Amino acid sequence: MATGMIVKALSGFYYVHSEGELYQCRGRGNFRKRQIKPLVGDEVEFEAENKTDGYILDVFERKNELIRPPIANVDQAMLVFSALEPDFSPLLLDRFLVHIEANDIEPLIIISKVDLLDQEKLETIEQFKIKYEQIGYNVILTSTLSSEGIEDVIPYLEGKISVVAGQSGVGKSSLLNSLKPDLNIETNEISSHLGRGKHTTRHVELIKIGAGLVADTPGFSSLDFIDLEAEDLSHCFPEMASLSADCKFRGCTHTSEPKCAVKAALEDGQISETRMKHYLQFLDEIKNQKRRYD
């Protein structure tokens, strides 16, 4: 018996990387009965007589699990947003950030196409960069016409399992191709009607880029808040989470409660009004969803 990581799942086979070698394995016969479905990113125990005839015996506990792409134990999400065509959306970025924080995944914000901006719009994007860096996020600006900014991404991949997510039509697959030129991930043209590109990858695979592993399929297609409780939302806003302990009431939602540390910080300018606006919008959405499901 040995241990390793599933790096590819295809047609009922799981490809396990262990000590520099790759083993083609099937799942144990009782996995379905036990409702265990191995995922790319899983740490597993397996046995194999040779490299093409192995069996996964056990799947170790996961720290997180995504539905799209179906992958486990993700450390980092590279959130790709364009500065132009489509325009940068702070609301959509914050929505992605909430989902990533809720899954205990570290975000890396990448804003592409900055070379297409005029000076005024570039300064606006640079202000967004500063604002998110002050919260504690890492932000990288990249160019479409050169590799400028792309090389800055490589160090953030080291020792991590990463997924790519973000706004539709911003070139998520193009980013992967830029990071690893021999990858040649195919993408269809962006539909002018839908304003989105369609990814054509048929399976999930972790590819080695730099000293890290990156899923070759973009993720987070669903951005609703079904699994998030109203009282947990502020924990997904780091600048609020650090202040919540100072609120008078435990479980404070930072709306109408007295002696709220978050509202005090907002008044002092320590918390962005835009971020607070998005928080309240998401809070209403969660409460309305709960009412519908109840």
UniProtKB/TrEMBL annotation:
<comment type="similarity">
    <text>Belongs to the TRAFAC class YlqF/YawG GTPase family. RsgA subfamily.</text>
</comment>
<keyword id="KW-0378">Hydrolase</keyword>
<dbReference type="InterPro" id="IPR004881">
    <property type="entry name" value="Ribosome_biogen_GTPase_RsgA"/>
</dbReference>
<keyword id="KW-0342">GTP-binding</keyword>
<dbReference type="InterPro" id="IPR031944">
    <property type="entry name" value="RsgA_N"/>
</dbReference>
<dbReference type="Pfam" id="PF03193">
    <property type="entry name" value="RsgA_GTPase"/>
</dbReference>
<dbReference type="GO" id="GO:0042274">
    <property type="term" value="P:ribosomal small subunit biogenesis"/>
</dbReference>
<feature type="binding site">
    <location>
        <begin position="166"/>
        <end position="174"/>
    </location>
    <ligand>
        <name>GTP</name>
    </ligand>
</feature>
<dbReference type="GO" id="GO:0046872">
    <property type="term" value="F:metal ion binding"/>
</dbReference>
<feature type="domain" description="CP-type G">
    <location>
        <begin position="63"/>
        <end position="223"/>
    </location>
</feature>
<feature type="binding site">
    <location>
        <position position="252"/>
    </location>
    <ligand>
        <name>Zn(2+)</name>
    </ligand>
</feature>
<dbReference type="GO" id="GO:0019843">
    <property type="term" value="F:rRNA binding"/>
</dbReference>
<dbReference type="GO" id="GO:0005525">
    <property type="term" value="F:GTP binding"/>
</dbReference>
<feature type="binding site">
    <location>
        <position position="247"/>
    </location>
    <ligand>
        <name>Zn(2+)</name>
    </ligand>
</feature>
<dbReference type="GO" id="GO:0005737">
    <property type="term" value="C:cytoplasm"/>
</dbReference>
<keyword id="KW-0547">Nucleotide-binding</keyword>
<dbReference type="Pfam" id="PF16745">
    <property type="entry name" value="RsgA_N"/>
</dbReference>
<keyword id="KW-0690">Ribosome biogenesis</keyword>
<dbReference type="InterPro" id="IPR030378">
    <property type="entry name" value="G_CP_dom"/>
</dbReference>
<feature type="binding site">
    <location>
        <begin position="112"/>
        <end position="115"/>
    </location>
    <ligand>
        <name>GTP</name>
    </ligand>
</feature>
<keyword id="KW-0963">Cytoplasm</keyword>
<keyword id="KW-0694">RNA-binding</keyword>
<dbReference type="GO" id="GO:0003924">
    <property type="term" value="F:GTPase activity"/>
</dbReference>
<feature type="binding site">
    <location>
        <position position="254"/>
    </location>
    <ligand>
        <name>Zn(2+)</name>
    </ligand>
</feature>
<comment type="subunit">
    <text>Monomer. Associates with 30S ribosomal subunit, binds 16S rRNA.</text>
</comment>
<keyword id="KW-0479">Metal-binding</keyword>
<dbReference type="InterPro" id="IPR012340">
    <property type="entry name" value="NA-bd_OB-fold"/>
</dbReference>
<dbReference type="InterPro" id="IPR027417">
    <property type="entry name" value="P-loop_NTPase"/>
</dbReference>
<comment type="function">
    <text>One of several proteins that assist in the late maturation steps of the functional core of the 30S ribosomal subunit. Helps release RbfA from mature subunits. May play a role in the assembly of ribosomal proteins into the subunit. Circularly permuted GTPase that catalyzes slow GTP hydrolysis, GTPase activity is stimulated by the 30S ribosomal subunit.</text>
</comment>
<keyword id="KW-0862">Zinc</keyword>
<feature type="binding site">
    <location>
        <position position="260"/>
    </location>
    <ligand>
        <name>Zn(2+)</name>
    </ligand>
</feature>
<dbReference type="InterPro" id="IPR010914">
    <property type="entry name" value="RsgA_GTPase_dom"/>
</dbReference>
<keyword id="KW-0699">rRNA-binding</keyword>
<feature type="domain" description="EngC GTPase">
    <location>
        <begin position="72"/>
        <end position="221"/>
    </location>
</feature>
<protein>
    <recommendedName>
        <fullName>Small ribosomal subunit biogenesis GTPase RsgA</fullName>
        <ecNumber>3.6.1.-</ecNumber>
    </recommendedName>
</protein>
